[in-house]
Design a protein that fits this description.
mainly alpha; Four Helix Bundle (Hemerythrin (Met), subunit A); Arc Repressor Mutant, subunit A; 2 domains; two-stranded antiparallel sheet; 11 helices; 4 strands
Length: 255
C-alpha cells in the first residue's frame, strides 16, 4: 500500500470518501505541476484543492452543499466559524478553514500582479505547496486522533517533506533533478520541459551528456526519439505522443 492509500484510509476514519478522493487528486496534481514548473497550474489546482476541502468539511459538519453555481469556498469556510464551539472541534471550525482561506486568497489574487514584476505565479506556487501540505496534515491529525501517534506522524511527514521541481534551467541549459533516469527519458523530458520552444538536435545531445551520459549513448538515445518529435530547421519539438509518454514518465518518477 502506497502512502496516498494510507492517507486516504486514515482520512476515511472521519471524512466522506467522495471528497477525500477529490482532495488527494488535486493535491497530487498540484505536486505534479510544481515538479514541471507549471506555476499557473499549481495555482489552479490549489483552488480546486481548497474547494474539495471545503466540501469535505461542510459534509462532516452536516451543512448542505449549495448548487455549483452559487458555491463559494471562501464564503463557506468563513461560515464554519459560526458553528457551535461545543459541537464542533476548533480544528474543523477555525484552524483548517483559515488555512484554506489563506490559499484561496493567494489563488484569487493570481491575475492581479503587475506584468513588470518577477514571475508572481512562481512565488505563489512556492508558497501554495507547503500551505496545502499543512492543511492536509491538519486533516490527517484530526482524523487519526486516538490512533497510533507514530504512524500518524509518519503519514504527516510524508506529505510535509520539501517538494523540489523536477527540472532546472541554468542559462538555457536544462537539467533533471533526479538520478537514475535512462538517457532516452532524459532527452524526452528535456524536450517536454522546453515545449513549445524548439531544440536543436546537437543541443539536446549535449544536455543529455551533462547528466553523466557518454556521448555515443546520448546520440543513440536522442536518435530513438524521432517517432515522438516534429523537426524543422529551427530544431525539434515534441508531438502529442511524446508529451503523453513524458507525462507517464513523470508520474512514475513521482511515485
Amino acid at each position: 500500500m502506497n502512502k496516498q492509500e494510507e492517507i486516504k484510509n486514515a482520512l476515511k476514519l472521519v471524512f466522506a470518501s467522495k471528497h477525500i478522493d477529490a482532495v488527494l487528486k488535486h493535491f497530487s496534481s498540484a505536486i505534479e505541476k510544481y515538479q514541471v514548473q507549471d506555476w499557473e497550474g499549481v495555482c489552479l489546482k490549489g483552488g480546486k484543492f481548497v474547494e474539495a476541502v471545503t466540501k469535505l468539511l461542510m459534509v462532516y459538519c452536516g451543512k448542505p452543499l449549495p448548487a455549483t453555481r452559487s458555491f463559494s469556498a471562501g464564503k463557506e469556510l468563513r461560515s464554519l466559524e459560526q458553528l457551535n464551539s461545543v459541537g464542533f472541534n476548533d480544528t474543523v471550525r477555525i484552524v483548517i478553514p483559515r488555512g484554506g482561506i489563506f490559499i484561496y486568497e493567494i489563488v484569487n489574487n493570481r491575475g492581479r500582479h503587475d506584468a513588470d514584476e518577477i514571475d508572481a505565479n512562481e512565488m505563489d506556487a512556492r508558497l501554495l505547496i507547503p500551505a496545502m501540505s499543512w492543511v492536509l496534515g491538519e486533516l490527517l491529525r484530526f482524523s487519526t486522533k486516538g490512533t497510533d501517534p507514530l504512524t500518524s506522524m509518519e503519514l504527516i511527514d510524508s506529505i510535509s517533506n520539501k517538494t523540489y521541481p523536477l527540472f532546472e534551467d541554468i542559462e538555457g541549459r536544462t537539467y533533471l533533478n533526479r538520478n537514475g533516469i535512462e538517457p532516452g527519458n532524459i532527452a524526452l523530458l528535456i524536450l517536454y520541459f522546453r515545449y513549445p520552444k524548439r531544440t536543436q538536435r546537437q543541443e539536446l545531445v549535449d544536455m543529455v551528456i551533462r547528466h553523466g551520459v557518454k556521448a555515443s549513448t546520448a546520440n543513440v538515445a536522442v536518435h530513438r526519439l524521432k517517432p515522438y518529435i516534429d523537426e524543422n530547421d529551427q530544431g525539434w519539438k515534441l508531438r502529442l505522443t511524446g508529451k503523453i509518454k513524458a507525462e507517464e514518465i513523470i508520474k512514475r518518477i513521482k511515485n
